[in-house]
Amino acid sequence: xxxxxxxxxxxxxxxxxxxxxxxxxxxxxxxxxxxxxxxxxxxxxxxxxxxxxxxxxxxxxxxxxxxxxxxxxxxxxxxxxxxxxxxxxxxxxxxxxxxxxxxxxxxxxxxxxxxxxxxxxxxxxxxxxxxxxxxxxxxxxxxxxxxxxxxxxxxxxxxxxxxxxxxxxxxxxxxxxxxxxxxxxxxxxxxxxxxxxxxxxxxxxxxxxxxxxxxxxxxxxxxxxx
Length: 226
Description:
This protein is of the alpha/beta class. It contains six helices and 14 strands.
């Protein structure tokens, strides 16, 4: 699979010719100012929760690309009120077979208010099970024993975990999460964007290496094979 990082927790994965975008937050991220948002294509946009740093560009991108928005019931309902029509509601514990593979929704320990202050439902993570590989995106979350269920859903090729601390897991908890989900290749997200979540990149890489794990920190705009 090809993984493209757009900064913060926004990234895209290509599966079976489909471009799947996650948690779009680009225009308001100073670190992502070199990203040409007009060039981004998406067949699906998955949204883990309602916070603005995960939804700020959702409506614009969904309208331009015609992508199907997938999220919890409350966020999908809100998106419909913004004029979006291609919507697929899900919720924690549910799964659905899409044209690229199956997605299982998982527990995330976080909060989920929408930009206008309305209720954003339960935050979620996603396990993708596809012919081209399996991966887990935890969304914004604390370390939780619910992660021990993930290996029962799929054998993972990689996982996308927050590592910035303060609002989510930090490096130490992400290492513990990697062990729970039985995945040795981790892509770090949700770091550096704000002062509260700036990290020491080299220290993080070394901590993962010392734990026998691989941490990938792609540059914003970079595409890597996973």
